[in-house]
Amino acid sequence: MPTTLRIGPYRFFFYAGDRDEPQHVHVERNDRLAKFWLDPIRLQSSGGFNRVEIGRIQKIIDKHQTQLKEGWNDYFGS
Q1: pLDDT tens digits for range 17-39
Q2: Which residues contact 4 (CB under 8 A, 6 or more apart)?
Q3: Exposed end of the chain (fewer CB within 10 Å): N or C?
Q4: DSSP track, 8-67
Q5: pLDDT tens digits, residue range 51-73?
């Protein structure tokens, strides 16, 4: 599970088996986990995050979208 970004309590990562899906990132904090598509940025699933925190995470993804997409391409190939 390559980690592509860490900001505050959040870890942004991919699973090795994610290759066949559109670009996305998983976000975890403690026992909570969410999945966001990267283009366009939108929540795919959320396990335990409240609406305010999802908004905070989405802003982080928006700010770092290029870096996250580059991390995806570096790991899986473009």
Answers
A1: 998 999 999 999 999 999 999 99
A2: 12, 13, 14, 25, 67, 68, 71, 72, 75
A3: C
A4: TTEEEE--GGGGGSPSEEEEEETTEEEEEEETTEEEEEEES--HHHHHHHHHHHHHTHHH
A5: 999 999 999 999 999 999 999 99
Q: Give the count of domains, the chain.
A: 1
Long-range contacts of 54-61 (CB under 8 A, 24+ apart): 57/10, 57/27, 60/7, 60/10, 60/12, 61/12, 61/25, 61/27, 61/36
Ramachandran quadrant class, 48 (left: phi over 0; alpha: psi -120 to 50; beta: rest):
left
Q: Given pLDDT bands bounded at 50, 70 and 90, which one contains residue 78?
A: low
Domain span holding position 26: 3-76
